[in-house]
Structure formats: structure tokens, C-alpha cells
Amino acid sequence: MPPWPKIDLPVRPPFAPMEAKLVARLPEGAQWRYEPKWDGFRVLVYRDGDGVVLQSKAGLPLGRYFPELEEATRRLPLDRFVLDGEIVVPTPRDAPAPADAPTSREAGERHDGGFSFDDLLLRVHPAESRVRKLAAELPAAIVLFDALVVDGRPLLGAPLDERRAALEAAAARAALPGIEGPGAFRLCPTSTDRAQGQRWLDTPGAADTDGVVAKRRDLDYRAGERDGMQKVKRMRSADCVVGGFRYASRGGLVGSLLLGLYDDAGLLHHVGFCSTMPRKDKPELTGRLEALRKPPGFTGHAPGGPSRWATERSTEWEPLDPVLVVEVRYDHWSGGRFRHGTKFLRWRPDKAPRQCTFEQVEPRPAG
Q1: What is the pLDDT of residue 77?
Q2: Angle, to 10 degrees, between the axis of helix 67-75 and the axis of helix 128-137?
């Protein structure tokens, strides 16, 4: 990875953003602030003069994929800041979908007038010429919801309410719109009313979000920690590491992905499988997986153990270098694994494999 640009700020990249703990229901009490949970790529936005960095949740640079956002950051009438937000791709009403864009929600539906995660995935492309073309066709935006540094002043030790006030003041100076407004930067809505948070969670067809985040109003910004932030997801899904795969019974193509999650000791455990990848993608996917073959694949519980249902073929699998992350939907989780086959939703190139932990599927009651 190339060196980070020089950023002379109290917070410098790479810096771990604050995270949220998965819970079953929204917490109650005057100490909480509620926000929609956006379906995009988490990003920390740094600016120090002409020095601009877009950093992913995994601590990697995102700027090469979103040159229009780097340019928009330099045009802001603000300087010396670090802001926390989410990269999304707005879908203009009545805009035609790109020829290579998915068309169904399972593979990714475009919601006119909202945001499209699958259009966002198209933006992560290795070819610079393609990146520039997509930046023009599918320009991204950033939804801002927290401030770590404003006007060079560090805010990490300030409570959320103070950080939010600083963010809103900066947004007013820059004339940034709300979530439905135009432009490269939007201000995330927030509320101290739990009823409003529940309405955001219960809104049917809210494709732009995948849940609600509750944040403690009185707490400082705790980098890389889950204290003080809780999330409730609208759909039961999990980001999993692909630790291996099995070939289909015929045709020489991939038949299923073997899914893994990391425990607190850093061991990758096999927790289930997914076999619903789009058929048209399987030839290319097979070649991609074959290039990543590398034992052991799983360092904890591995697939292919004794079972009265196991056949000779069902125990055969190819171990992979654990670098790919996929989001799957699931119906039932118990005994440390998905009890039925999961449904492929999408790849998550914005997530680091080590961030795929059991915390996603074993929520604790809200406190």
C-alpha cells in the first residue's frame, strides 16, 4: 500500500472508527440518540489543506475508487477536519441503470431516488479508466454523522452531543443539505426520540438503510470499540469470510462457498455454506477462487467432520486464503453455525476479514 498523504491533524490515518454492538431491540432512555444505519461503505474523511484522505473501516485508502469525492472534499469551504460517515451512491429518479448493474434485490435492486449498494459495488474496480467512467455515471456521496476534528480542534474526548453540534455547525457553514438533498455531502438525520428511531426501523421497503444505530449522547469517541453504540438490523444478515469452496457435482464450477467467522482468539471457524451465487457469475468466480487456494482455510472448526449424513464427496473441499468477505442472509443460527443454507447477498470488499466475528450473529440484549 502506498504511504498515506501527509496529514498534520490530531487524528491521522489509519484510525479505527467507533463501532456498534448488535442488539435485538433499540435501547430506551434519554441518554440515547438514534440514527438510520446506512447501507454503504464506512469512511473517515480527512482534510488538511490540499491533503485529502478517504479511509475505509478496514483502515485502507478508498480515494482511488472515488476520485470525485476527493475533489469534492477539497472544494468544501472547510479546512483541517476529520469527519465520520458512509459512502453511498445516489440513484437519480428515472435514471437508466448501467448495462452491467444488477436488477433484483437478491443480486441488488436499484431504488429510484434512493441509494444503491450494488451501484456502489460497481465503483470498486481495478482499472483507472473504468473508475473515472463510473465516477461520472454513478457519482457517490457521503452521509456525515460524526466529527472527530473540526477546524483543527480535536473532539475525540467530547461527548456525542458536542460532536454533533460541531458537525452541524460545520455543515451549516458549508451549506450542506440533508439526506435527500443534492451534492457530494449530506447530513445524516438524528433524533433523541426513540419512537422516531423505531419508525426508521419499521419503515417497510427502506432499501437505503439496513437498520438503526443508537448512540450514547454522553460518551466520547471510542476508536475501534463497541462501547456506547448499539445497532438493530432490519434483515438477519452477516458478513462472513470465505474459507473454502466445494465444486458442483458437474461442470467443474463452484457449487458452494464455505463460510467462516473469527472468534476472540483469532481462530476462523466454519459456520455454514452458501450456494445461491448468480449462475452467470460462476465461471469467473471459479477462476478467482482457484487462484486463492491455500491451506488450511479454517484455523478453528473445519468442514467435513464426521456426520451420519456425510458422503465422500461432501467432505471434499478446497481451502482458501481467507481474504474474501461475503454478506449472506440467514434464517436460523444455533450451536455456533447457520442451521440452514444461507442466501448470497453480495460481496463486501469494504470489510476486512478480521472484522467478521461471531458478534454479528450472537446479539446481546440491549442494556
Answers
A1: 96
A2: 60
